[in-house]
Automatic annotation (TrEMBL):
Pfam families per record: adh_short
Keyword Magnesium recorded: no
GO MF annotation: an example: oxidoreductase activity, acting on the CH-OH group of donors, NAD or NADP as acceptor
Family according to the record: Belongs to the short-chain dehydrogenases/reductases (SDR) family.
Designated name of the protein: NAD(P)-dependent dehydrogenase, short-chain alcohol dehydrogenase family
Gene Ontology biological process terms, A to Z: carbohydrate metabolic process
UniProt-listed InterPro entries: NAD(P)-bd_dom_sf, Sc_DH/Rdtase_CS, SDR_fam
Keywords of this entry: Oxidoreductase
Annotated organism of origin: Zunongwangia mangrovi
């Protein structure tokens, strides 16, 4: 039931650490995977990795905030593979001015940086969904998987802009699942994965010292994660494969935590 043989998947941000792991996982379970990202070099590197592992992959160099580049990407994937069955909205990130550092207050927040973070995380999920999910509606079948965060579910200090934009993803996931089922039937499903704490390019310096030991913030996170560690990127694959496959055919509108128990723990 978890096989994805012949399914066509797009992973935005598939050139990143977490998106890349999900792209590999979908490929290993039989999906053809299109890796979408802004940077040609890293997109091509990810595609080659998937191909070298025996998978079928396609490079899509596009910006999730640029409608025309997304339309070109859609045309390319339809020309190559003829359908779009799975969309993983993995592109996202944070920006310095939307983070409240320990020596700052809320009143130091940069509205410009906040808008940029919201654009990337929220609009950067909505716009690809607008472009790519039309094909799913035509097919009357498809799975959209958004990427949320623990920052959407709990009040986590400092990351104000990121938290707010990921909370919007949770609401959008639920709203769109209802909208699509009401208007187009049961075939197109919308769910989200909420990763706990994983070490990536953007947060490495916040979580780890240069010698690999935990920073004070990293230690707090581990102390409040019952499994007492950070997640490994490959540990997102199981949830993504399940949500992409017919094994979750009666599942829509949910946010699945992959967090080592962080969301279940009250800190006592």
């Amino acid at each position: 039931m978890f096989e994805l043989n012949g399914k066509v998947a797009i992973v935005t941000g598939g050139n990143g650490v977490l998106g890349g792991a999900i792209a590999h996982g979908l490929s290993k379970n039989g999906a053809k995977v299109a890796v979408l990202g802004r940077t040609e070099e890293t997109v091509n590197t990810r595609v080659k990795e998937i191909q070298d592992a025996g998978g079928e992959a396609l490079a899509l160099v596009a910006d999730v905030l640029d409608k025309e580049s997304l339309i070109q990407a859609k045309d390319k994937i339809l020309t190559e593979w003829g359908s779009i069955d799975i969309l993983v909205n993995g592109a996202g990130g944070n920006k310095k001015g939307a983070v409240i550092t320990p020596d700052q207050e809320f009143f130091d927040l940069s509205i410009e940086a906040l808008d940029s973070v919201t654009q990337l995380n929220f609009n950067g999920t909505i716009l690809p969904t607008l472009i790519f999910s039309k094909e799913m509606v035509k097919q009357k079948k498809g799975s959209i998987i958004n990427i949320s965060s623990m920052a959407a579910q709990k009040s986590i200090t400092r990351v104000m802009g990121y938290s707010a934009s990921k909370a919007a993803i949770d609401n959008f996931t639920k709203w769109l699942s209802v909208e699509l089922n009401h208007k187009y039937g049961e075939g197109v499903r919308v769910n989200a994965i909420a990763p706990g704490f994983f070490v990536g390019e953007q947060n490495r310096d916040l979580l780890l010292n240069q010698d690999g030991s935990l920073t004070a913030r990293g230690q707090k996170i581990v102390d409040n994660t019952p499994m007492a560690r950070f997640g490994e990127p490959e540990e997102l694959q199981g949830a993504a494969i399940w949500l992409a496959s017919d094994a979750s055919a009666f599942v829509t509108g949910i946010v699945v935590p992959v967090d080592g128990g962080f969301s279940a723990f009250g800190g006592i």
